Amino acid sequence: MQLGLDLQKFINEYIHSKKVVTLARLPRLIIPSQAHYVVLGGNAGAHLFQDRADFERMFNIIYEQAVREDVLVHAYSLLTSQVHLMLTPKTSESLSKMMQSLGRTYVRYFNNRYDRTGTLWAGRYKSSIVESGEWLKKCLIYMDYLPVRSSELLEDPLNAHSEASGKAGGTLHAPRDYEWSSHLHYIGLRNDALVTAHADIWNLGNTPFAREEQYAQLVVRGISVAEIQHIEQSLRGGWILGNHTFIEHIQRLAHRRVAKAKPGRPAKPAVAPTGGARIS
C-alpha cells in the first residue's frame, strides 16, 4: 500500500533525526500524494484582505507557490481573516515549503502596501490529513459554506472567542454568492486555473456537466452540525479526518496519537508508548 510506504519513510526519517530529542514541538505529519486541509489565519483575527487587489494577490501567490513546490490545489476559500486550502503535496517537504513561502511573500506585499511592520499570521498554519472519499467531499462542502457561515456569524469559525469578521461585503445566502472560493469552479460557473480536481470529483460523473450537477447537489444537501464540529475540532488539533480504519492504519505507522482521545481514563498500554505527542 503506497500510503503506508510513504508514511513509513517519513516516520523512519523522523525517528533517526537528531531533532527528536531536542525539539519540544513535533513536526507535522505530512503524507505525500494525500490530501491535507490547511488553514492559515490572521494574527488576533487581523483582516488579511482590505480590497479586491489583496484577494487577487493572494490568489496569485497560492498559484505561484503551488506550482513551484509541486503541490496540487483542490479547493480554496479566502475569508477576510483566514485562508483555507485543500492541498496534495508531492513530497513530505513540499507542503511546508509552499506554506512558508506563501506566508512570507504575502506579508511582504501586505506590509509594503499598507506601510506596516511585523507578522500578519497567528503562528504556524494548521493542517489535517484528509482521507479520500466521503471525508474529502465533506471538507470541500464545509469549505464552500465557510463564507456563508462567516457572514452570518461575523466571527472566525475555528475560534469561538474571535471578534474578527469573516464578512466579505454583505450577508451571503449561498456558496455561489461568494467569489473567492473554488465553489463556482466546481459547479461550472467559472474555469479556475488554480484548481486541480481531486479524483473524488472525477468520480462524480462521466462528463463535466454530470460532475458539476452532482457536486452542486452534494453542496445543497450540505453536512450535519456534528460533521462541521468534527472538522473544526480536527483542524484545531491537527487530527486526521477519516474513518476508523484509515486512522488506525496511520496510527500503527506513526506510533503517536493522530486522533482526539476518547473521554475518560485511557486504557493501560500493553507496551510503553514511543511518543504520545499529538500532531500539530
Share of residues in helices:
40-55%
H/E element sequence: HHEHEEHEHHHHHH
Strand order of the largest sheet: 2-3-1-4
- Under CATH, the topology can be stated as Alpha-Beta Plaits
**Based on the structure given, which CATH architecture is correct?**
2-Layer Sandwich
CATH superfamily label:
Transposase IS200-like
What is the strand content? 5-15%
Q: What is the CATH domain class?
A: Alpha Beta
Rg over CA atoms: 19 Å
The largest β sheet comes out as: 4 strands, antiparallel
What coarse outline follows from CA principal-axis ratios?
A: globular
Individual helix count: 10
Notes on the structure:
With 280 residues, the protein is an alpha+beta fold. The protein has a single domain (30-240), classed as Alpha-Beta Plaits (2-Layer Sandwich). 44% of the residues lie in helices and 9% in strands. The protein is built from 10 helices and 4 strands, in the order ααβαββαβαααααα. The protein has a 4-stranded antiparallel β-sheet with strand order 2-3-1-4, sandwiched between helices. The protein is globular. The relative contact order is 0.15.
